[in-house]
Design goal:
The protein is α/β, with parallel strands linked by helices and 231 residues long. It has a domain of 152 residues: Vaccinia Virus protein VP39 (Rossmann fold), CATH 3.40.50.150. The chain is built from eight helices and nine strands. A seven-stranded mixed β-sheet has the order 3-2-1-4-5-9-8, sandwiched between helices. Strand 6 and strand 7 form a beta hairpin.
Length: 231
Amino acid sequence: MKKPLLNVFPSVPAHILVVGCGTGRTVFPFGELGYTVSACDISPEMIRAAESQKALLKSSVNFYTLDAAFLDQTYLPDTFDVIWFPFHRINFIFPIQHRILYIKACQKIEKSTGTVIYNMHNFLFPRVLKQWLIQKNPHYTCIHSTEKSLWTYTRVPFLEKLFAQKYYQSVLMFTRYSLIPININMKWKERFARITAVIFDKSFYYILRKPKNSPPSQICFKNCFICRSGF
């Protein structure tokens, strides 16, 4: 968790759900700050590792093995102040229709004043764009081509914002480097990436607030140009 990002989180004691929590790296610090924390991951192995850490740290975090697309089948409506999906893990939701189900599930389980936060790989980032041009998969790109192991959903950042605006009234988008305060000791790569963020920053953050009362009822990847375009 980058400290400047904490500014968008409500004050303690708020209830935070960390989706795709892995072994708990982004989970336990919230508990230490005084938040009420729940967490889930689709991988049973990751949850077992997180539970082991929980015992060592004597944490009160509740962990569940869950598919992000079906959060509303476990969590009650109007429960969370923040739903946080870190480390670009929303990119790994498969199939793509489940991304819509995830957004709809968030709308059900977040409070009316709640916030949904996630970050995604930048489709225009040279490494991602290069692999997309080679593989020409309309939705997913392997960004570690030598290992053939890490496939990520790809979409142009501004089109992702338009997608989110179909479901939320307020959508804020910013780059990872914009979280780094400008100072005299900033590395030249960081300065350059900050200026040319749309291309050279591999990570974009999205903050969604105020769910729309009547989100699209159909899977819009089949009906909407923005989604049908594959970006």
